[in-house]
Amino acid sequence: MKAVCTLSKGTVRAALLAFTAFSTLALQPVATQAQMPDPDSFHQMMSNQLGILKYCTGKGFPSQKAVATYEKYMASMPAPKDAAKSALYLRKGQDGVIYNGEQSQLRLEQMAEGLNQTPEEFCKSYDENAKAFENAQ
């Protein structure tokens, strides 16, 4: 039997704020090295977002074009030093888990609820993120 973790709305909101702040870094214009997170952390975060996007696509929400845009963006990034860890972040995303380490995991459905959105609305936001990537390249 698998235990289900229930989180208070305050916990979900705190996780949302952290996720939003971290996700926003991905959409910022090119910054100096001092302003960017370390490359492996950034790659892990982007791997998880790509996994979440694939999870959403499997549910029929965002477009396949968004997946292709994310994959193209990821291909332009330097390879991570710890490829296995980035692969873990991708797998977690593909399972519908917004993941930032073992102590920071949130189901996509919980994230959407904390934002007063349906999972479909949350997933469709990745189409807008993909457009931002296209414009940045």
Question: How would you describe this structure to a colleague?
Answer:
The chain is mostly helical and about 140 residues long. It contains six helices and two strands. It has helices at about 10-25, 40-60, 65-75, 85-95, 110-115, 120-135, and strands at about 95-100, 105. Strands 1-2 form a two-stranded antiparallel ribbon. A hairpin with a 5-residue loop joins strand 1 and strand 2. Helix 3 (about 65-75) crosses helix 6. The longest helix is centred in the middle third of the chain and has 20 residues, at about 40-60. It starts with 8 loop residues before the first helix and ends with a helix. The relative contact order is 0.18.
In quaternary terms, these chains amount to single chain
Describe the main β-sheet briefly.
Answer: 2 strands, antiparallel
Task: Sum up the overall morphology in one term.
Answer: globular
Please mark out the parts with pLDDT under 50 across 5 or more consecutive residues, or reply none. Answer: 1-33
Q: Provide the helix percentage.
A: 55-70%
Strand arrangement within the widest β-sheet reads 1-2
Q: Order of SSEs, N→C?
A: HHHHEEHH
End-to-end separation: 46 Å
pLDDT average, as an integer? 77
Give the total of beta strands. Answer: 2
Overall structural class, as computed from helix and strand content, comes to: mainly alpha
Beta-strand proportion = under 5%
The total of helices stands at 6
What integer value in Å does the Rg equal?
15 Å
